[in-house]
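User: I'm preparing a small set of examples for a lab meeting where we compare how different chains pack in three dimensions. I only have the primary sequence for this one, and I'd like the structure in token form so I can line it up with the others. Please keep the answer compact; I'll paste it straight into my notes.
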Amino acid sequence: MTEPIAVELAKKQKEIGVAEFFSRNRHLLGFDNKKKALMTTIKEAVDNSLDACEEAMILPEVSVEVIDMGNDRFRVIIEDNGPGIVKKQIPHIFARLLYGSKFFKLSQSRGQQGIGISASVLYSQLTTGKPAKIISRISPKHPANYYELKIDIQNNRPDIIKEEVVEWNKDQGTKIELELEGSYSLGPQSIDQYLKQTAIVNPHVTLIYTNPKAEQIIFPRATEVLPKKAEEIKPHPYGVELGVLMDMLKFTEARTLQSFLMNEFSRVGNNTAKEICQNSAIPPETKPKEITREMAERFIQGIAKTKIIAPPTDCISPIGSELLEKGLKKEVNAEFYATVTRPPSVYRGNPFIIEAGIAYGGQQEADAPIRLLRFANRVPLLYQQGACAITRAGTQTDWRNYSLSQSQSSLPVGPCSIVVHICSVWVPFTSESKEAIAHYPEILKEVKLALQEVGRQLGIYIRKKKKVQYESKKRGYIETYIPYIGEALQELLKVKDSERKNVESLLAEILEKTRGQIESVEMENIEYDEEFAKIGKGENDEESE
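Assistant: Understood. Below is the structure token output for the 545-residue chain.
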């Protein structure tokens, strides 16, 4: 008797390992093509280095070297001056996907998922078959540990090819060397642009870059001040979902519902916990493990009915408008700069801050669309611009109010670069490759308000500039006709020929004396009358909402 088909099918079914899954779906991690794969590899390594340095309160100095091996193969070497990695952790960090310390932490960091650098090792292994080479040292008193690693794809475990202690001329830090298939070219989505943009939003970092042409480019730091260290916080009640809540109730060590609320969430004190229980119609003494799904639903409704203080913001570390302006001035040649850091806001219980900056004029193209530079937790987002909430907010902003030309539903045209940075404990990316931000209404609103703030400053500057240019043009006309006016006055006043030059000098002096007075009055009129009369009403009303 033949077996049922279901039995035959059951024999073919097996568990899929995470490394095996990503080896077949590497596009999900940003390894779509050779050019993007090379850039993503460098991005993940640099992000790790910067996070490690900042956690250890070390001013980062990161070296990036890309060597062209020919036949679309490149050797990538990233070296930092960070705290180094403990020996037993090195194989797991570099050769095990979904292994890291940041997934469960509610504090701002570049990495979130624990798959970045290990995915780069996986891609290198798949395309060249060569192991990753890592050196790390934690202090001058400890040896430098050298590893050659591959990933056991079936089991998602490190496969150690070589392990030894080596001499290294650094007191501490980490160095990784990978060989992979790639493609190098210049352009808006190149390694060069990624490092340049990284230097803008990380003004405390020194980057030393050696490109495939063996040319060295140094991006020096603009400040000796490290970013404020982001503190870890507990989740906020407003962001919790039903399934997550039920898991928390199942695994908590709290004995009562009231103590569960106070111990597991931020901004929940004794009185707030009692109020949530009251609004949920559940006694505060109820044991968390006794909460049913129906009770958990009432609990979620009770949280929504309770007024709870917004989550703390010491878990995020914005750049700050002053340092953002320094970063812009260091890397973008322009004639006018404006930056802003918005007050903290919240989405799904997660605090976030939006920062924006604009650099206008200089050597930038006047007839091309503006350059929109997007950043999340100090990391440049070079791909999927059209799918990003930042782009959506940029196209929804009416830039014509700020003297830039703009077609409907598109970014404006003009000689300027616009920077938008979101910092949060959990950035809502649209995919694992972390290239675009999801369209949360709260994020869209804050980005738009930040763009309007820098836009107003830009509009004032452009109108002043146009007015001064117009005034200079008028003065030019007058200066052209001063000799003829002098000649007419000579005839009317019967002035001698020898004194005619004195008359012309007097006219020029009068014109020069009134220059500052006239222009200052015109600038004040522009700043107050035009600004508040033309654009103040609509947008200031929106901001006040």
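A couple of notes for your slides: The first strand starts at residue 61 and ends at 70. The chain has four domains: 18-219, 237-305, 321-456, 461-544.

User: Perfect, thanks.
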